[in-house]
Amino acid sequence: MPPKIIDKVDFSFKIDESIISQDEVQAMYNQMRQITKDFRIQTMKLYVQSAARENEILSNEIKTIINEANIQLTEEEHQLLRLGSKFIFNDPKTAARRRITVLATLKRKIEKCFLHKKVSPGRPLQQFIAELDVLLQTLHNVPTTRKNLHKNSVIVSQMNQNDIIELINSQASQSQVFNLVKVKKKKNYGRLVKRLKHKFKLANVILQKSDKSKVFHLGKIEDYRKKSKEYIEKTQAYKYLGNEDRLPDLIQRTNKYLLDLRLTKWITQKQYELLSIKPNEVELAHLYYSPKAHKSGTPQRPIISGLKHSTIKISKFLDDLLRPLFDKMTQETTVTSGFELVKKLNEWSKVNMNQNTIFCTIDGIDLYTMIPHVEGVLSLKKMLDYLKLKKANGFKVETIIRLSRFVMQNNYFSYDGQFYHQIRDGAMGSPLTLTMANCYMFFFERALPKQIKNGVGLYFRYIDDLFIVINWSTRYLLKQIDRWNKFDENIKLHANIGAFINFLDLYIYMENRDGTLCTTVYQKPSYESYYLPFNSIHPLHMKKNIPFTMLLCAIRYCSTYQTYLDECEKLRMTLLLNKYPNKFIEQQFNSVLLKYSIDEPLNMINYDEYRQNVLDSPSKEHERIDYDKVMLIHFTYCLSMKAFPLKFHTLWSKYFGESPINEIIPVLGTRNVKNL
């Protein structure tokens, strides 16, 4: 996209036509236009030249890295990597492998519904599962084994004549389609992935997702190890344990701790069973690094992945318990999106914005790794006291604090074959860490919103990022921030102040001295024009959602028609780069206008009115699922599953439409195979 300055430059000025003759005036105006035209052409040529040179240098850098790593990539392998980390290739074999487990789970759910009605499911359930099994095997194009054929033939023999004819016709027609279609030779993506993994391993290279943009980043193993060593030495938050695996001891201690709480009646038997762990379901957490490729020197973000860690059940349970309480406590000073901030700013600016208005964003430096264990746990106790709670969902406050302390004190993990214990700060990756950091930050900042409100300003927070808009002098605000920095030695604030600022994905500025608020979409330096590729094997509704939400965001954020047009062109270009057809993009853009009753093309005259209607439209509230009436069923998605939902609901109506569970609504979800 060329810089906006190129098409905005205009070398023209007013000539007094009462003094100079008309021919001379026209000649001078033509000369001005020619100068403007020449400037634009020459500037554009220079811009294209510099962009081409940048592209050449970056391409050479990539080739150098690959050559240094001694990786010889084929054209097929290079094309595969260009599809990016989100790409999923068609994998009906994985879908077929999961079929048996999915059907067994579905059968148990249906049996449970019948049991709830105190009725036996009987033969219809067996026939439903058998017919569904045949349908899935046909869709996955997997040959039916003799064992399955015999089993299904017994059940099919119990069907009536019409059912058998209907089943044979449906399956015959599908098999005819498979026979008639000439199968194009497909790429063996699975083999390509295995070959790439082998090449990277031989070359001591790591292919990792970048920290923000989630595009592929190529790095050397020795660089990762060096930076990891520097980080561990710098933070002094990790104790080295050598080659000793603490997992068996940790499993025993976790279950013993929970049993002690049960015996002393701090928790109930049901709560004990909910939180206790089985040795065969547990793995030690591992540390990995996400490269911040957009920053100089490519620093790394440490993440401790503990999805099966021995304390993950407790951590997730406490987070689910405490997060709603925290959200309730901080709802007046917290924003969760740029859209929410736009609405608050618009209301405030109508009365308070003037030429003295300044914007300020404040970043809490390394918040997660700066909060000590004891103070972090105490902040949770403060929150529960602040809300005047003695119990939360049946748990005593003392029990919550004991469990929180246990989670924080037992962060063990492995890295590069060695074992470590995190002795201070919270683990990035543990669910409880975010809530604890939020609580700690809330009690640090409690005096700030009051001070800003007294100064007729606005104050909001998103995790460790603060936003302030106020009619103070820059010098006075900086003085206040210096004072706030002395509140707590564990929290250090870094401020950015000016007449324009970015916060979350929103760019905020004043257009003129009168203090007119302007906003548009902000893209961070880490932004890459990479979204889910259109040729990835994802359900169509996921792909439709991307251009829809992108355009809706543009209307909400762009305060002027011109910035909206600029953003639309960026979106279109980005989507085209990700293989989205232009017709598909246009359809989804029109869907946004249709949803918000915009029945004419947006233009300079009507944009403000229609945008205000979009801003005023109520946000869709998250609906709670009534699990007594809704049954969630997840099937693994592959290319042949497009027509599956309709066929599934037809089968469901056929066997259960007149049954005792006819009020149960089956909701189909998709489970994807692994992406790149």
From TrEMBL:
PROSITE patterns: RT_POL. It holds the Pfam family HTH_animal. This is Reverse transcriptase domain-containing protein. It comes from Rotaria sordida. Residues 271-532 form the Reverse transcriptase domain.
